[in-house]
Structure formats: C-alpha cells, structure tokens
Amino acid sequence: MKLSRVSAVVTVAATIFALTACSGGSGTDNKTLTILSNTQNGTPTGDVQAKVIAAFEKSTGATVKLTQAGDTIPGVYETSLAGGKEADVVMVNLAENTNNWVKEGAAIPASKYLDSWGLTDKIKPEALDAWKDAKGDVQGFPYSGFVWPVWYNMDLLNKAGIQAPPTSTDELLADVSKLKAAGIPPLVIGGVDWSGQKLFLQIAQMYMTPDETTTVYSKGGYCASPNAMKGINLFTELRDAGLFLKGSEGYTSDQMNAAFYDGKAAIMSAGSWAFGDAPAALQANVKLGGFPIPDGGSYDKPTAFQGYTGGGFWVSPNGAKADKIDLVQKFITAWYAPAVAASWAQASNAPTAVIDSGSGAPIANLITAAAVNDLPKAVDFAVMPDTVVPGTLSDAMIRQTSVAFAPGTNAQAICSGLDSLYAK
Amino acid sequence: MAIKSLPDVVVATPQRKSRENRVKPALLGLSLPAILWYLAFTIGPLFAIFYIALLDWPGFIAPSSFVGLKNFQTMFADPVFWQAARNSLVQLAVVLPIMLPVSFMVGYYVSLKPRGHRILRVILFTPALISLAARSIVFLSIFSPTGMLNGLLRGVGLDSLATPWLASQSTALGTVMAVDLWSGIGFTAILFSARLSSIPEEVMEAAELDGAGQWRRMWGIAYPICHDYFGVLLMLQFIWMFFASAGSILLLTNGGPGNSSTTLSFLVYNKAFRESQIGYSQAVGVILFAVGIAGMVLIRRAFRPKY
Description:
heterodimer, A: D-Maltodextrin-Binding Protein, domain 2, 43% helix
C-alpha cells in the first residue's frame, strides 16, 4: 500500500522526535559523582587517584564517573558548563583560565566549605593564601605544590673545572666561559614554551621587589620600570654571553628535559614534576639550587620558584547542588587524610598543601630528597608569574618571551612586545 | 514526392508537468532532518558570527554586552591584526602560485601513465591520508633544532645554515608554507590527473603530429581545456589555506615566535579560545569571511569558461 503524503511526513516527524528523546543526556542522581581530572591513568599519581576513587566507591556505595583531560581541561570544563553538563568536581591547577572560574560563576569558592568540612586546619596557610582571589575568597581546595629549582649537573661542571654551582651572575658568566671552553653547552631551556617564559620572568624580576614584580607582571609597564629594564638587560647580557644552548629558542620543555638527562647541557631550570623522570644514574650528579643573583639585586640568595597552585579541587555548580554536595564533601575530604597526602607527595615528587602529609618514609628519589632537605636553605623564592600574570595573556606572553631568546633581540624590543600585550 | 504545402508554424506549448516531475511532499519530509540540521549548524552559526562580532564577550562562561562596532575599531587599530593580515596575504601569494602550476605539471605527467604511475599516484596521495596532528608531529621533528633538517645540514658541513626553523621570526612562516606545499601538491596533482585523463587522446595525438612537444601540449592544449577546472582547484586551495590554516599553525608554531606566523585564521582561534575575546575574534571572522568571499568571486571570474 502506498504511503499517503501526510502519513509519510508524520512518520518522519515521529522518528525525529523519538531519536531526539533517545539522545538526551542521563539525569543526575545522588549516587553518582562525576570527576574531571588532569591526572592520567598509568602514571604514579594516576595510581593514587585510582586507589582513592576505589576506596571512596567502596565506603559510600557511590559510583564515580572519571573523565581525564590534559592541557585542554579548562576548555573541556567550560564547554560542558555552557551546556549545564559539567562535572561535579574538577581536579586541575590554578593558572590561566581557571583564575577566572570563581569570578565568572564557573566554580563555587572553597571558602564556603573549608570551615564546615574541617579542612581549614588541615591545609597550609600559605597554600590557602595562594588560592585566594582579589576578594579574599579561596577559589578551590589547594592540593599539589611544586618547587622549581635550577638543576646543576655537577659531573659536567666538574669537567669544566667548576666545583660548585654559581650563586652570582658574575660567577655564572665566568662559568659559562669555562663550560664553553670545555665544549659543554651551559644551560638548556624550552625557549618556545612556558618553561622559557618562566625563566625569562625569573631573571627579569631580579632587581624588582615582590610588590613591584606583582604590579608590573599583572598590569604591564615593563619599559617604564627601571628595575624591570635592568632585569631584561641582565637577561640579554646572559644570552649574548652564550648562556643558552644554541637553538634553545626552538626547544620545548620536553626537549629541554631530554637534553639535560642526556648530558647535553650542564644546567636546566625545571620543576618538581620532572624529578621522577630523571634517570637514576643522573640523580646522584644533580645538585639543586637557584638562579644566580646579580650584584645590587633585590634578593639575597639565588632564586627559585615554589607554589601550591599545582593542583586542587574545584566544586562546580552541579556539584554544589543539594543532592550532590554530600558526596562531593566526602570525596574531597578523603584526599586530605595524611596517608593519602603522603602517597600523593611520594608519587608526584612534590610537596602537597596538606599540613600532615608525611609518613616519615625515606625519599627514594635523590633529587626530591634534595628539594625537600637542601633547597629551602639555599634559595629565596621569587614571585611565581602564574599567580600574577593575567590568565588571558599567558599564551600571548609565551609567544612574546620566546622572541627574547633569539640572539640579537634587544631589551627595548622585548619590553615593548610585552607592554603591547597589556594594551588591549 | 512533391511537397504539397508547408506545415503551419508549430508553436511549442509548455507541457504540463507530469505527475512524476512534481516534487513529492513526502520526499521533502524525508529531507527535512537534513535541512533543519543544515540550517541550525551551518547557516545559523554563519549569521551568529555577525552578531557576536558586536558583543564584548570575555569568555564562554562570562556574560556578554552589546558594544556595536567597538570590536572592529579595536581590530583596525591592532598591529597584530595587520600582521596577521600580511601573513595571510604572503601565505596565499607565495603558496598558491607555486602549488597550482607545480600540481598541474605533476598531474599532467601522471596522466601520461608513465612506468610506475600507479605507485606514483599512491605516493602523491599519501599526504592527504595523514592527519593534521600526525603531519605536525613529523614536521616538528624534522624542523626542530636537533631535527632531521639541521642534522643533514650539519652532516654536509653547512652548520651555519642550521637554525630553529619553527622558532625563528625570519623562518617560521616560511616553514609553515613549505609544509602547506608538501601536503597540497600531491593531492592537487591527483585531482588534475583525473581531469587530464578525460581529455580525448586524439587531441593530443593531433598536436603531437603537428610537432608540439610535451611542454607545448601541456600548456598550449591541456591547460586551456582544463582552464575552468584549474580555477576550481585554485579556489578550493584558496579556501583551505585562508580559512583553515589555524590548525597547522597551532600545532607547528602556535603563531609565534611573537606573532610572526599568526594568520587571520589563527587569530580567530587564538582570540576566542586563548585570550577569551570572543567578540573580537568574530570581528576578525567577519573580515575573514568578507575577504574570503571576495577572493572566491575573483578567482571564479578570472577562470570562468570563455565559451
């Protein structure tokens, strides 16, 4: 029998509506917790995460739906938020786009829950400070910390007749000459990405006080600041003296790590996330320190970075709903148990923001041990740029600072390029 | 037999459309989902570009406000926009005049079916089968400071020419263009060879008998026959390069160092997703759209059939 025109259209329309109904998302329920995490399976920290989730599911009877995303996690979260389908809890650092989440209503400030959940006394005060926004609200629950020292391969330094890492830029320049004479590239850096940006900003702030650094890095005005210009001139002087391995302006942080691990450079600036990848044979040769300071600078010791913005927990609007918040509380507070924090510190080779996070077990990784035991006494900690450079400028700044590593770029061109980022 | 009389002039009367020629509403009903999908996800976003360009919208999750033409004023006063426009123009002006003629000549050669032409077709088409991410990984390792190209240069004693190709302001854009050529020539050549293979053999044989060599036959006979098809492929490559260069630039240079390899297409992406200036990015998108349409119209007019 031929279908009539009307019945054909009705059939099609009915099919459309039926398929639409099938494609709708599942509703929320109070026995399922959705987590969006930047910690990947198959890594030491991923193993800790898996154990915490398994223990949580067992103790609560809830189901955890874990989604893992890497560097794209802010974009993934914001897209899902736009559709009202965001995860209940996000595990990510405080940097770039996440700096705006509480301000834009994408996350509920942790301040709302810290006291009632009994976490204020469990988290280091400096970590809580690092996560505060301009209004004084703690934005997320701080968890992972980091240190970002300078690594010195003593074996290579000794080969060039250098017995100790330099502590002043004059010593550094002298050591550069010795290393080059011995055919050893001095310092390797990922000039093309964030690792180069951090080293540049570390050197540029050598003559500025922390407050001045905060003002310049958050609002611009590099060319107009005499102390910032002194720092940028110091950078170009070191660059032109041959401090950086040839071609460093084209290296990524991964290539930097690989070159240092392979003994192709004597010095590297890298954070605690790289401690675990360092070959065992190299660990005994590495001494951690800070970047040497200039005469007349604002720091008394070589500088390094440290912070507690390496990772934390964010409560989403979905997670803050009445039917989910209990589960969210149980999940987040589980991480602040001393044993869990100790496991995380061991797996990440980095400090956590948790006050009681040590099991007292000896640290196997020699570089991590040096970071915990020796580094704090040897360095001053400089202003971490990620906490003061506006998140929306971060990517453009990385492209701009990469120009600074190219031979021949003068200080005026560098500062003008940086200032132009803030002009928009 | 004598013609008795001329027939009356016959005036053609329009035939009534037969029942079979009328579009059945049932068929319309079956196309309805596709039409709705197209309207919602292709036409809708196209109009949305123009509206969003009039907003100050600092991030997908932030509220937006109407600011009229302010984004366009900011854009026209922004040196980065003009640098991106220059880079886009350079990319088109260098790559297209090289890619199309070279592809045509390679396609002509393949259409002659030389020995091994089947293998040659596969080799030429292979770049089209490689994903953007895989291609970028390959070329990142070729052009990195310790990559294959610098290794080769050092190996033959040309150490002074070794440079971080993707990280130097003087070579970053050129390196991206070289990758564009690598990925576009082979594929376009295969498309040309398909068209050239349909040219009647007698035409070429006649030209050969008249003493025309391969070069003369290629540009004097084959090219005029394929003139409008040449224009179609030129237009497609123009569209792909002008509108879709953001992907390869993101993966190879991220628009840097500085803004030396930023194009308009990359600027749209960067402003929206990295710098959270969605209104501004769509203002660039409007310019991209307008210039793109103008370019396509010019190409079609220049290469339209002359008969």
